[in-house]
Amino acid sequence: MNFQSFGFLTFLVITAAVCLGAARWDRRIAAECLTLACLIFYVIGGGWAALLVLVLGMAVSAAAVRYLTAPDIRVQPEEDGPAAYAYPRTAARRRRCLYLAAAWHTGVLAVFKYTGFVTGGRLSIGWVPLGLSFFTFQQLWLLKEAYTGGFRPERGALPLYAFFFPSVVSGPILKPQAFFPQLRGEKFLRPDGQDLAAALYAIASGMAKKVLLADNLGIVAGNGWARLDELSAPAAWLVILGYTLQLYFDFSGYCDIAAGCARLLGLRLPVNFDSPYRSLSVGEFWKRWHITLTSFLRECLYIPLGGSRKGAARTYLHILTVFLVSGLWHGAGWTFIIWGGLHGLGQIAERAWGAGREKLPKLLRWALTFAFVNAAWVFFRAPGVPQALTLLKTAVTADFRPPAEWLMEGIFAKEAKALTMLLPALRAWTAPALTYGLFAAAMTAALWPHNTARRMEDFQPALWRAVVLALLAAWSVLSFTGVTTFIYSNF
Predict the structure, then answer these.
(1) Which of 153, 198, 199, 466 is least enclosed by beta carbons within 10 angstroms?
(2) How far apart are CA 271 and CA 256, in angstroms?
(3) What is the DSSP letter of 231?
(4) Model's pTM, two decimal places?
(5) Is-contact 236 212, C-beta < 8 A?
(6) How crowded is residue 278: how many other Cβ atoms within 10 Å of its Cβ?
(7) Is the peptide bond before 383 cis (omega within 30 degrees of 0)?
(8) Cα-flanking dihedrals φ and ψ of residue 447, to 5°?
């Protein structure tokens, strides 16, 4: 069930009305209603078979968490003597439990997502449960926290944690400490007026990002990738920048809608984006882009590997390993591995450069970082390595022909048709004006000092905000037809 659909809006209204209404009498029953709604959402979006796969995984996690966190059973012998443990949970047994549960989750992910890649396409499952990658990392995080004693989750709330509908498809990846304590908070299913206003603001902003910006930018990127051999250098850069902005507003828009839906239910999701395209280094970029994924990889992979405690060479190896895993997690293909490797090498180069890089002007550091991120995204988007290299090669040629008109076909199709009907004389200028206006608006929004997630923290309702958001929401809803799914739901 796509967030940008009439069906989802109907589901959200019904779920909020039932759960918030039930919470007035009994919040426990309301929480059970929310859990049921989350399962229904997943069945509609992923199907019964996918739900069964993830439920089995949740059951494995629940059993492991119970073993890792439950106290040992004390047995008093018949004769006088000290009490003994019937089955002491030794360090080795606890570690074995963790490894077995983790092996289940990584094994299921590998079978569904990487069988085709490993076998060269000779063997493939043919389908992947919706949100499996996010589900797997979230369950691994839960197991890690239970094992280290960092957190003891409530077993009865595990289904809600696993299938919470705002985040189950594309994240953010929820650390247990960021979710379970809120279920005991006063605002859970009892949001106040400010929460409701911030929720509506985030949902409207997210839909506008996805429907009005991401999908129209995606048209330029799609047109260009379909006819790589006909691109000039300016057109190639327009395609590269178009996908860079499309991906940002697609995922950022999803996270805004998810955060708004959670706030509507009295819960707060962690910030997952913090204006990443304003970063002055690749390292800073990963502190701002997909923040929960970065946190997971740091806590559950980088630090256990040894982090930066074993010398420069081992630190560089750990960084590269983490980003190769990140690339492979995003997709089963060499282009994703190259993308992850590039980001790993980028961070290694910055560490090796040291303080000298900080002496460069901020504008130059931003330009270098943004250019690197754009180039790396080419591999993320490309159907294969040869196509990625073709686009990058075209971008640095001396072919300075202006972008062809076909590259802009389909941008704001309904709006363009209306404009040309009202002002036929502007027909030749409509597509270029809408395209460059779209890119200008997208760059401004991506580099704006305060993004939606930050504004939600102290959101203050105002009449002008209500009018602007109502117009954006109406425009987005009217544009729902033909809207594509979120990119990250494919991962």
Answers:
(1) 466
(2) 9
(3) -
(4) 0.90
(5) no
(6) 17
(7) no
(8) -100, 5
What does the block give as tokens for 10?
């109907």
Token pair 């966190």 is at which residue? 69
Find the helix or strand (DSSP H, E) in which 392 lies.
Answer: helix 385-395
User: Per the structure block, which two tokens stand in for 354?
Assistant: 């040291």
Determine the average pLDDT of the residues in 345-362. 91
Count other Cβ atoms within 10 Å, centred on residue 478: 11
Q: What distances in angstroms separate CA 154 from CA 102, 128, 246, 285, one per listed residue?
A: 19, 29, 39, 34
Angular region, 57: left φ>0, alpha ψ -120 to 50, beta rest: alpha
pLDDT tops 90 at residue 398? no
For 209, the token pair is: 């990002």
Assign 396 to helix, strand or coil.
coil
CB atoms within 10 A of CB 385: 13
Give the span between the Cα atoms of 104 and 125, in whole angstroms: 17
Helices (H), 47-192: 48-69, 91-118, 132-148, 158-163, 176-179
* Residues classed as catalytic: 330
The answer to whether 249 touches 210, Cβ cutoff 8 Å, is: yes
ω before 172 within 30° of 0 (cis)? Answer: yes
* Tokens 């002491």 belong to residue: 88
- Enter the tokens of residue 422: 């009202």
Residue 292 phi, psi dihedral angles, 5° rounding:
-70, -35
* Chain mean position to CA 87: 41
pLDDT 10s digits, 76-91 = 555 555 555 555 677 8
Report the chain's terminal Cα–Cα distance, integer Å: 16
- Across residues 355-359, what is the average pLDDT? 87
Rg (CA), the chain: 25
For the stretch 244-273, pLDDT in tens is 999 999 999 999 999 999 999 999 999 998
Tokens 């560490």 — which residue? 351
pLDDT digits (tens, 9 = 90+) for 153-177: 777 899 999 999 999 988 899 999 9
- The DSSP code for 47 is -
Q: What angle do CA 181, 184, 189 make, to 5 degrees?
A: 110
C-alpha to C-alpha distance for 66 and 94, rounded to whole angstroms: 11
Best CA proximity match to 323, nearest among 307, 308, 351, 345: 345
Tell the residue number behind the tokens 């979120």, with chain if given. Answer: 486
Tell me the C-alpha distance between 256 and 341, whole Å.
29
Per the structure block, which two tokens stand in for 466? 């209500």
Q: List pLDDT tens digits, range 443-457.
A: 999 998 678 877 888
* Tokens standing for residue 389: 């290299």
Q: What are phi and psi of 119, to 5 degrees?
A: -90, 5
Q: What is the pLDDT of residues 21-62, one digit of tens each?
A: 999 999 999 999 999 999 999 999 999 999 999 999 999 999
Residue 411: the pLDDT is 82
Task: State whether residue 262 is helix, strand or coil.
Answer: helix
